[in-house]
Structures are given as structure tokens and as C-alpha cells.
Design brief:
Distance between the termini: 16 Å
Helix content: 40-55%
Number of helices: 3
Oligomer: single chain
Number of domains: 2
Strand order of the largest sheet: 3-2-1-4-5
Length: 176
């Protein structure tokens, strides 16, 4: 095709694809990396947190159905182990719900059921709490594969966004 037959790209389209989308991707990637790295560092630190005895007060599977699905069992259903536990630190009562750092829902109900079976209502558990924030607690300290998910999500977004910021302006100049 001859260059004289091509229509010029409108400025708004250039701005949107050359600035808004790349900056958005960089922002999402940087935010995901920040959250992910914070979670990874806290998960590593949680292995040294003090612990107290606690008791499971709730053990249920919570189902979240996305807007694209209207029935349980559809591909948009997500299952979460809804676990709550009570514990006391320095004479003060607390309620926790975090099992690990990096808890995410699952598309497989059996995964959520297995967590609920591991922590049935009424059993005694060991609760690990953050030394300077007793309300920050969990049942399983340490790193899990799921703790890394925001990092794995953020890296490609950040890199693609940065690449777009670098290469799209060069492409626009060479076609001008």
C-alpha cells in the first residue's frame, strides 16, 4: 500500500495508545509488584512471629459468582474457605480470618472444602500474630506459591507498559 493512501492516525488515538494504556499498564504492574513484594516479605517474617492458642469459630465455604455467570458451578464461580478464629494476646481478645498470606479463591470447590475440613469449627489451633500488630494474624506462616501471584502478575504488566512507552513514540515518529 502506498504511504499517500493511508489515513493519518488521529491525535486522540495516538495519545490513548501511546500514553494512557502504557502508563496504565506501568501503574498496574508497579502496584501489583508493591503489594506482592510486601506480602512476600511479610510471609517470610511470619515464620518468626509469636504464637498463641486459638479456636476456630467459623468454618464455611463462601461462593462468589461473577457478573458473567448466574449460577453456581459456572466458570465464573469462585470458592473461598471462610475460616474465622478467636485468640487472646496480652489479655485482649481478637478475631482472625487469614489462613496464609496469599489466600485466594479457587475455581475448584474441593480445594475450599479441604481447607474447611482441615479447620473445622470448634478445634484448637495455633495462631501466629504480628508482634507489633496483634490483629494481624494467620494460621500457616511462611511463603506459599500463591504469595508470589501479585509479583508474577506485576512483572509482565510493568515490562510491557515500559516497552510500549519506549517503542510507540518511536513508531509514531517514523510514520509521521
Amino acid at each position: 500500500m502506498n504511504a499517500s493512501n493511508t489515513k493519518p492516525i488521529p491525535q486522540m488515538v495516538k495519545f490513548f495508545f501511546g500514553k494512557i494504556i502504557p502508563f496504565g499498564m506501568v501503574l498496574v504492574g508497579a502496584l501489583a509488584l508493591y503489594v506482592g513484594i510486601s506480602n512476600v516479605l511479610m510471609a517470610r517474617a511470619s515464620t518468626t512471629w509469636p504464637s498463641v492458642a486459638g479456636k476456630i469459630s467459623k468454618s464455611d465455604v463462601r461462593i462468589h459468582v461473577g457478573s458473567s455467570g448466574d449460577q453456581v458451578g459456572s466458570s465464573s464461580a469462585t470458592y473461598h474457605a471462610d475460616i474465622e478464629y478467636d485468640y487472646v494476646v496480652d489479655g485482649k481478645k481478637f478475631k482472625g480470618s487469614r489462613i496464609t498470606l496469599g489466600d485466594f479463591g479457587t475455581a475448584d470447590r474441593a480445594d475450599a472444602d479441604s481447607i474447611c475440613n482441615k479447620y473445622p469449627e470448634g478445634i484448637r489451633v495455633t495462631v501466629y500474630y504480628k508482634p507489633n500488630d496483634y490483629q494481624e494474624a494467620l494460621l500457616e506462616p511462611g511463603l506459599r506459591t500463591s504469595t508470589w501471584v501479585p509479583v508474577y502478575f506485576g512483572i509482565p504488566f510493568l515490562l510491557i507498559g515500559l516497552a510500549l512507552l519506549v517503542f510507540i513514540p518511536k513508531t509514531n515518529k517514523s510514520t509521521a
